[in-house]
Amino acid sequence: MATIYDVSQLAGVSLATVSRVMNKNANVSEKTRQKVLAAMAQLDYKPNTFAQSLASNCSNSVGVLVSQLDGPYYGPMMAEIEASLRAENKHVIIAVGHSNAATEMDSVEFLIGRGCDALILDVEAVSDEYLIELSQGPTPIVLINRYIAQISDRCIYLNNELGGYLATEHLLKLGHQEIAYISGPKNKHDACERLDGHMRALAEHGLAFDPQLCFEGNYKEEGGVDGMRYLFASGKPFTAVVCANDQMVSGAISVCLELGMKIPEQLSFVGYDNIPFARYISPKLTTINNPIHEMGKMAALWLLKNVFKNDIEVMSVFSPELVARESAKQLAR
Prior knowledge:
By secondary structure, the protein is an alpha/beta fold. The protein contains twelve helices and twelve strands.
């Protein structure tokens, strides 16, 4: 097996020069760089990345901790993170927290133990205090989809309260006043913020929040199914439903279609996230755009700027936008 010494001998350069070429150091002439690369190719030399990381104290790897791997939400985020980091010769190691505090903390320890240079964390169950303390440690972190005032400079997030407000406000402007709500799990920060926005919109229109018209879902299709069945069983009248994400909308509408209802003629719906299927189902879904792929990219760029010292512009705060389609209509009076 070829060694770095063999490469230096064949190329006629020092070991330090070979090392600079492998680390993409700019202080090497193009002619010399090509000689070293040609020698590496001829000898089929593969750099020992573990040894490189020990020598340079840099592994060129970033740990990414997400809540789950299934569903249409996290894929675009992770794809943007991976693409942005790979473009700068950084690699990702992925762990999953499953919205459980112990699992999230164990995953953080795993990623740090793997020698990651920095961490991108999409966590829901661990406390703010834990994350504040973690931010003061030797491994830099950036949070995605979560805001903590004390470490706001490390947060890439969406104004979810405003998103919840816009969803309900849209229905109120269409004349709806009896509006049901299927929330996400109330142990998730974004779910609570979206519900707060829904309640603010009702209050601004002089309407009281009715707990009987609110069901706690699970951000999955079956949560929408269970929520819709609960709402119908409550016997309370309602003309529209806001769901805290698009996946639950699909489950909720499926219950209505099984009952022979027409959407939106008999019941209007607004979702949240604007995942790809929202613009293809019938009727096309009115929803709140959640640019999770852009937030993923910005989390990666934050690390490239603050940890790897690239000169990059980074945006931290994103604003939700209403995407009005066909699933919500003016209420006939």
